[in-house]
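Input/output pair, single chain:
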Amino acid sequence: MSTKSNKEKLRIVFMGTPDFAVGSLQSILDAGFNVVGVITAPDRPAGRGRKIQKSAIKQFAEENNLKILQPTNLKDEGFLRDLESLKANLQVVVAFRMLPQAVWQMPKYGTFNLHASLLPQYRGAAPINWAIINGDTETGVTTFFIDDKIDTGNIILQKTEPILPEDNVGTLHDRLMSLGAELVVETCEQIESGNVSSAPQKHFQNLRPAYKIHKETCKIDWEAPLKQIHDHIRGLSPYPAAWTYFINNGKEESIKIYKTKTEVTNHDLSYGKLIHDKKSLKVAVDGGYLELLEIQLPGKRKMTVREILNGLNLDENAHLR
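Output:
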């Protein structure tokens, strides 16, 4: 952290909600910056019991005795007065919602956002998922100054991160959370020292969006090529999880698939056909077989296929669709 006496110390308001944001807030505090307030989503019912739950950021802020605001409307005059009273000169946003101009223009040094992609690629709500779904081998994190559109502001800093063949959303999420936390602190240090610079985002012909994930996004297309299906599954694992219809013994149920392995080979079986022995369960697809490693049957916990095969009676026409 800068100690130059001729530079104004930062007074930071942090905005975020899920686990991904916690790493950045923790790092800001560890670096010795002054966090004068935390803005997070209102408490909401969640889970099967629909119990009221606090966001991950609220829980962390309470543990660290930070002032918390939970507005339902970011344009509400009462909230804007409360925000202004914190006298912040910088706002840091990680995994929050779109801000109105009255909010992002408020502090002297502006408002910057951490995004889990190499902008301008994967603007939107689910950049980690889509980078894996699309079969990319590299992604990263970006800090940028917020403007009036979604993820389009001037870029401050970026760091790259490889996407490993064995990665799923969970493993990549955790690495990007740590990498992003480092980048947030670096950005704060540059702003406080007065040495920050930013540049407009480059224009590319083929921009890939990161749309919000919906249930239909998660449905597996067994007509797709082998690698595409494999990437689709790992790009949705462990959450929200890819799913498909399982047809067996005249019964159709939906199941979730979390982990697979590819086997490139030629075959003449119909796509979606299940092939099994005592140790493995494979799906015939375009380009080979997709071996199922972890799945979840209706009403059951997530299990390895080896555990499931012990008690699973598959008929000769069993398939996925």
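The chain has eight helices and 16 strands. The domain at 215-320 is CATH 3.10.25.10 (Methionyl-tRNA Fmet Formyltransferase; Chain A, domain 2).
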